[in-house]
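Audit log entry. Action: structure prediction of a protein-small molecule complex. Ligand: flavin mononucleotide. The ligand was supplied as SMILES and no pocket hint was given, so placement is left entirely to the predictor. Protonation state taken as written. Sequence taken verbatim from the request; no trimming, no tag removal. Recorded inputs:
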Amino acid sequence: MPVAEFLSRPMAVACDAQTLRNRVALAPMAGMTDVPFRTLAWRFGAGHMVSEMVTSKPELWDTGKSRARRVLIPHVQPQAVQIAGNDPSVMAESARRLVDDGVEWVDINFGCPAKKVCRKAAGSALLADIDQISRIVAAVASAVDVPVSVKTRIGLTLDDNAGTQAAVAAQEAGAQLIVMHGRSRACRFKGHACPERLHQARSRLRVPLLANGDIVDLASAEHTLRRSGADGVMLGRGAMGQPWIFAKLLGHSLPSAEDRLDLIREHLDAMHAFYGEEAGVRIARKHMQAYLQRWGAPELIADFMALSNAQQQHAWLFARRQQMLQRAAYVFTQGKVAA
Ligand SMILES: Cc1cc2nc3c(=O)[nH]c(=O)nc-3n(C[C@H](O)[C@H](O)[C@H](O)COP(=O)(O)O)c2cc1C
């Protein structure tokens, strides 16, 4: 079956209680996959999206950053929020509060390698304590009546199979979907993802498994699916600067270069509106850097970085429109940039 056709098939989770509209998910990426970006990803067909990580301690939720990460997007279903922490009762309480606020899916982070998370024995540090993973998932799953998923890695190092053990333990404790990044905790983001290392987990799971790591186009999605045997894919960095990638993976037509520029303008507007001008301008720089890289116009990045307010960012994009369309006519048709 062609990969786009496979990825377009709905995926039942939670004993058919929830059905994802397809098998292509957007990965949570703190600082990137916020409400404005997820809104675009959903429009282009992402079948599942998880919020940027939120601490499991509700007493730390009263900050602008934490509040922004818990905002729900109208007409997106299901709405998943990811929590990170290590205390089962605290995690259960935060899951309960999220669901009271309308969250329809709780994801637990067992994959983050960041020092500030691992120092607190959370994220990927928990791959060293599979029993604690069981206790956390069991506490969260029994606290809420929405699906609970976990996102993890293949292991602590390339030489162990802690990822498989964590996935199976999470399933037995009540997780209804597993996402596995094909790198170890020690690899962090270096080297290549190893999708074949997901195979063992797939063979031992009843619940669906999404493969994550280095998926940027149809070829890499197909490679990952074949090697892992996974039920679908989740992509993170591959969606940066091209939220329309979901349409591509699902076999739908892509927006024209003109439409992409309009979408980038809309994305700029959404960031300024969602965060306010100061933070919106800062966050827009990260996204515009990704758009310009994908556009085959990296020489324009420094120019955009120097802009200091929303009006300048808009005016800049407007003034570069013809130049970018000419560049698109060259790079997209020459296949120099993933179209
Ligand atoms: C900037 C950045 C932020 C991330 N934040 C999170 C996060 O909040 N929660 C999480 O589970 N993973 C997070 N990740 C990991 C990604 O979800 C994903 O597992 C990883 O990037 C590998 O997938 P990719 O090759 O498709 O990007 C982050 C990754 C990046 C690059």
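Audit: result stored. The CA atoms of residues 54 and 83 lie 5 Å apart. The chain is about 45% helix and 15% strand.
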